[in-house]
Amino acid sequence: MAGQGQPIFILREGSQRTRGRDAQNNNIMAAKAVAEAVRTTLGPKGMDKMLVDGMGDVVITNDGATILKEMDIEHPAAKMVVEVAKTQDEEVGDGTTSAAVVAGELLKKAEDLIEQEIHPTIIASGYRLAAEKAIEVLNSLAMTVEMSDRELLISISETAMTGKGAESSKRILSEIAVDAVTSVVDKNGKNIVDRENINVIKKVGGRVDDSELIPGMILDKERIHSNMPEKVNDAKIVLLNAAIELKDTEVDAEISITSPDQLQSFLDQEEKMLKDIVNKVINSGANVVFCQKGIEDLAQHYLAKAGIFAVRRVKKSDMEKLARATGGKLITNMDEITPEDLGYAQSVEEKRVGGDNMTFVTGCNNPKAVTILLRGGTEHVVESIGSALEDAIRVVGVAIEDEKLVAGGGSPEVEVALRLQEYAATLEGREQLAVKAYAEALEVIPRTLAENAGLDPIDMLMELRSQHEKGMKTAGLNVYEGKVVDMWQAFVVEPLRVKTQVVNAATESAVMILRIDDIIASTRTASPEEMGGMPPGMGGMPPGMGGMPPMM
Question: Which of 78, 202, 357, 370 is 20 to 30 Å from the Cα of 125, by its Cα?
Fold first, then answer.
């Protein structure tokens, strides 16, 4: 109140403000709810979620990032946990559920500490110390992987795919993923894998086992003229960025034709110009044309007569991949086509796949772009397998780039938790409690793996700890047999970056949420038209009064 008893309004009417402990509890509760939503999907025995959007479209998945992206989440703190999963997906492609679950667990442990009157900044500081130590421990656990070690790379791929709907065919799909990634690696001082060079085409029909890797490109296009050959062996390919049609004049011009002879000579001239353009293609020695733009009907006829296989309106991204796959150059000026600019493939063929005609460009010399043709019985099966394969491709790429691996099955989390407990004992002050809480939070991963497999989480965790105490650093949980085994010998391995990214992303978001002690939410005032002509504030209850705000 002001001195004269006049109230001062700082926030707009209808704004809501939550402060202190209430704000923290509110945020932590929302973040925990999001983590809980994806927790049951973790691990080989994790369950799937069915997500139905407003249009009635159905997505069935157990990929954390997909679930959180499809869920319509309102709460601002909950959105931060969604960001964690999204970042994990963009950086590594796997470990999205782990990242969200760890973030939720860190906040749950922080809530207990706040109740013991430990200030959030001290918890945040302890968490940061713990995260640094955790990364250090993870790096010490890492083993090296060579790109030539195909079996180990297949194991990484299988671990990423486990429990993602591709279980029965994961060996075949893993081999496809590894072969695809290794063939597009750029050795530029260090290994670089550009995911864009692996094209995945999904076609319903057939079995998952019918999926194959094409060392070249598949275009979802057919030849433009039925008289063209269906298959061209020893293909010399011209990649055109220009249209094979007559250009319009850039200035408005009017041609006055007074006799039929003039009209005929005009048409003959047009025909001759088109024929000249086609002859430039023929004279270059090309027998296959991929054109990013249009090809006129008459030009199609001339190309067909010359026995040239042509496809038009090819996407720009596909043209770039074709250039990488065939070694050809993208040509913009028709006058400058030379034999050196042509790409090469052993065969270019039109095939019918799943009811559609597609063009297969195969047998390229050392292709730097490849295509995976995915098959499956139904739309949902193909989508589910596509998502699992995507994770596998990204994870194998990360492993080849970093050349570092750690064991899976909850093994690194238990080892890091034990080392953090020892590290906490060396600290002074209240940060020690935060580091201990961090160590306990990491154990949520092996505990959840056990719960989702129907095993006793306490027994399994005790067994894991005792094996790690004895010095077996790679002991992890075999959920199929319900016992603790050496994960290296079981070939359950993951790239180091998956684990370090989980630690970094989960810690950062947990610290950010913990440091918030005031939430000011302003509400949009509805216009008088929206409120049926009533002035604002008169049309029923003020915002925020109609029940609790939605959590998710």
Answer: 78
Angle, CA of 61, 67 and 72, to the nearest 5°: 140
Token pair listed for 116 = 């013991």
With respect to residue 175, please indicate whether it lies within any of the assigned structural domains.
no
Among 61, 63, 87, 326, which one carries the catalytic annotation?
Answer: 63
Residue 196 domain-assigned (yes or no):
no
Beta-bridged to residue 351, according to DSSP, are 358
pTM for the whole thing? 0.74
Annotation says 63 is catalytic: yes
Q: What is the CATH number of the domain that holds 122?
A: 1.10.560.10
- Tell me the C-alpha distance between 308 and 229, whole Å: 7
297 is catalytic: no
Of the residues 94, 391, 448, 507, which is catalytic? 391
Q: What size, in residues, is the chain?
A: 552
237-246 average pLDDT score? 82
* 391 noted as active-site residue: yes
Contacts of residue 84, Cβ cutoff 8 Å, sequence gap at least 6: 99, 100, 103, 505, 506, 509
The answer to whether residues 132 and 228 belong to one domain is no
Model confidence pLDDT, tens digit, residues 350-369: 888 777 888 888 887 767 77
Q: Which domain does 61 fall in, by range? A: 16-144+406-519
- Catalytic, 97? Answer yes
Q: In terms of domains, do 360 and 453 share one?
A: no
Q: Report if residue 514 sits inside a domain.
A: yes
Q: Are residues 229 and 117 in the same domain?
A: no
List the catalytic residue out of 41, 61, 97, 359: 97
Q: Do the domain assignments include residue 344?
A: yes
pLDDT tens string 469-505: 888 888 888 888 888 888 888 888 888 888 999 999 9
β-sheet with 404-407: strand ranges across: 143-144, 404-407, 493-495
The residue among 105 and 514 whose pLDDT is bigger is 105
